[in-house]
Structures are given as C-alpha cells and as structure tokens.
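#structure-requests
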Amino acid sequence: MKKHFPAVKFERFADDILAHCSSLKHAEKVLEAIRARLKDCGLELHPEKTKIVYCKDVDRRGSYEHESFDFLGYTFRPRLSKNKWGKSFVNFTPAISNRAAKRIRKEIRSWTLHLRSDKNITDLARMFNAKVQGWVNYYGRYYKSAMYPILRNIERYLIRWVTRKYKRYRGHRRRAKHWLGRVRKREPNLFVHWRLGLGS
C-alpha cells in the first residue's frame, strides 16, 4: 500500500482491512492489486467478507450493492443524523453492530442478575458496573443511542430481581418498578445505565 497506493488511507486490525478509495474504478484497482499481492504470499482474500462498499451520505446519493460494513464491533452505514442547528441529514457513521449487541445481550443473560436475591442492590451495581461502563466507553463513542435498547435489558432484570428479593413485590412487577424508581431517584448514579437516563 505504501509503495503503490500512498494516497489511500488504510487501516488493519489482525486480518481485517479497510482501504478508502475515491471511486469505484479506483476501488476495483486497489482490490485487484491486494488480491495479487496476497496470492504472491500464498494467501487469499475471504470470498464472502471481501467487498467494495459505497459510503452513502448527504453528498454521495447514488446506490450500490453494498452500503454497509462491520469493523471492530461497529456497523458503518448511512444513518439519519442532526447537525448543530437540529436539521436532519444522512451521514455515513458507525454504531454498535448487531453481532456485538447480540454478544452483550447474551452476557447480560449469563449474569442471572434476577436470581441473585442474596445480594442487595448496591452489591449488584458493584458487581456489574465496570463491565457496563466498558461497553459504554467503547460502543458509545459513536451513535450512543444505538446501545440504549441493549442496556434497558439490565433494568428489566433488576425489576425481576426486586420481585424475587422482596416477598411483598412477588407477582407485582409494576410495584417493583416503582420501588426501583424510588431508589433511582435517591441514587441516580448507582448504575451506569441510570446515569444515561435509562431507568424504567
């Protein structure tokens, strides 16, 4: 890349590669050169993962077979954004990928938070906040709101925890939800997702 395409911005992480080209013709030329270079090294591009993607936005309004790609846990695709004056426009931006979101949901389930009736609510926050904060720091860097539906799962498990922890709330999800709301009002920074305004 440095020798033959010095003007092309290029990123690599392990065996995932991105090359930023100025046109379809340019992209096809770069792709063919990379394919030939890898062949010389006894390697080949992944036939399904390798593709040319059109970065569609307010300035690039055409269409192409592929208009999104995943990289480092993010999906890059056209999204509706707002400028500083509140006007909507199409921007090609990253947000947490479906694959990463599915992995996080699975991990939250694995905590079996709702079954930990031997813990108090402060214990639960101490046990899981560091992990949740790590997700927010990484996946919330761009288009943070895409994470919100995932993090709301924690609140649902907390409501179920209340119904198991306290006998007077068993079978009363609404009352358990109100109890949790009172705790949140008293300690709004207890859980990471509460700090983001994602209470019930």
